[in-house]
Amino acid sequence: MQQPVWSADDLRLSFEDKTDSFNSINDPIVLEQFKFLQTRFSKEYDQVFADMLAPKTVVVIPSLTLDQQILSKVKGFIHYEERLLCMLILLRMPNTHLIYVTSVPIDPIIIDYYLHLLPGITSYHAQQRLTLLSCYDYSSISLTEKILARPRLIDRIKKVMPQQHIGHISCFNETAYERKLATLLNLPIYGTDPDLLYLGTKSGGRKLFKECRIETPIGIENVKNEEELRNALLLLKKQIPNLKKAVIKMNDGFSGEGNAVFSYAGFPGHEYAEEWMASVIHTQLSIVAEDLSYNAFMKKFTELEGIVEVFIEGETKTSPSVQCRITPKGIVEIISTHDQVLGGHGDQVFLGASFPASLAYSKEIAELAFPIAQRMSDLGVLGRFSIDFISVLENDVWKHYAIEINLRKGGTTHPYLILQFLTDGKYDYQTGAYTTINGQERFYFSTDNLTDPSFIGLTPHDLMTIANFHNLMYDSTNQIGVMFHLIGALSQFGKLGIVCIGNSPQQAIDLYQFTNDVLKREGHDQKMHK
Fold this sequence. Notes:
The protein is of the alpha+beta class. Helices cover 35% and strands 24% of the residues. It has 17 helices and 20 strands. The longest helix is centred in the last third of the chain and has 24 residues. The N and C termini lie far apart (67 Å). 45% of the residues are buried. The N terminus is likely disordered.
C-alpha cells in the first residue's frame, strides 16, 4: 500500500486557543518532556500491567476537553466525568492506588456503590488507596483547564502519590492541556500524543479510511466555511443526481451534537443550483443540537471546519462500532464491537449500545477496523479509541461504510470496562462472543440517556434505596444485573446512565425495560406526594 506523507499541518491540533496560555502549553520544553514520559511509559508497561500486585498509581482525569459550546448542548455534561468511576474497580488490586479528580465533589454514596463491587477486597482497604479531589468549579470550561489553574491542587495530586510507585494518567481524551498537566505531574498518559489529534477528526478519519482502502461514504473533507459547504453540497448532488440528503459534521463534534442534515427537496436542477442553494440552506439544514441557530452553527463550523458526505439510505441499516486499543508496545487489539442506538434528527445522536454487535457482521467490521488501527499504530497512536460504521443490508449481504474515528474514550468504553472488571472475561472478535472467566457468555445493553421528567428530584440516595428495594443491583454470584452511572445527573436533569448485563441479549433488554419502568413509577409516586 502506498503510504502518503502526513504533514505537520495535517497532524495539527484540532483546536486553537487564541490566548497567551496556548504558547505555554505548547512550549518546546513541554513537548520534549512529554515525549520522554511517553517513552518511559513504554518501557514500564509490562511491569505495570502484567503484575496484579505491582505497586502503581493511576491518576484519573475524566475531563471532556472538547468544544464547550457544542458540549454544553449535552444535558448534565459536567456529570459525564463520573463515567470513568468504573475504574475504581482497579482497587481490587491490593497495591494499586487511584487518584480521581473531578470538577465538583461526588456524593459519597456513589463512591460506596462502586466500592461494594470489589471482589476479595474490603471497602475499608480500598478507601485507604483512593483519593478523591475536586476543583469545586461548576463552570463550563474543561476539567483539565480547571486543574491547570489550581497549582496547589496539582501539588496535592503529587503529594498523595506514594513514593516509588509507577504511575500514569488516564483521560477521557488528550489535548495540549492534558499534555501540559502530564509534564507538571511528571506522569505519562495512557493515550495519544495531542499532535496526532487530526486523525480523530471527521476529516482525518475519512483520509485514513481512503488510505487504508476501506469504503467510506462519498463526501468531501476539510470543508472550511459556509461558501465551501454550499459548494460541497452541490458537488455531491452533481455526482449523485438522485441524492436526497447529505450529512454535515464538524470535525470535533461530540455525540452527534456537531452534525446537521441537509435535504435536497425542491432541487431545481443544476442551471439554478447556486441561487437555490443560497436561498434554502438556512431552512433545509436541520441542526441536530438543540437551541443552536443556523448562524451559530455556521460560526462554529467555520471555527472547527468539517466534512460533507452523503446520507446513507437503506431499509435495513445499523450503526456498529469497533473498539480498539494500541498498547505502549504498538500492539493492536480489537477489544469489543457494539451495535449503537442512534436517535435525534437523522439518527445522528448516540443514545446507547448493545454488546456485542450482531453476529451477522461483527467479525466483518472487526476485520475492516484492524488495518485502520494498524496504520494508526504506525503513526504513533496509543490507547483506546473506536471506529464507527454504517452497515446496510443489500441483497442479503451487509455493506459497511467507515464513517468516523473517536480518538478518545467514548460511550461504549465505560460499559465494556464495567463488564470486563466485573467478570474477568474477554471478547473474541473471531467468534463474536464475550466469555467470562467461568466460560459463560455475557451480553449487555447500555445507555447514557435513560431520561424522564419524573426522574427529576430523585437523589443518589433515593436511587440506592429504589435499587435495593426492587433488586436493581449487580449480582456478583451470577454475574448478571444492573449497574448505574451518571448518578449525579439524576436529580437536576432527570438523566441516568445504565449498563444491563444478561446471559442473553433479550435478558439485557428486559433488565433495561424493567429498570426504566420501576424508576418511572417511583418518579411519578414522588410527584404525587408533593
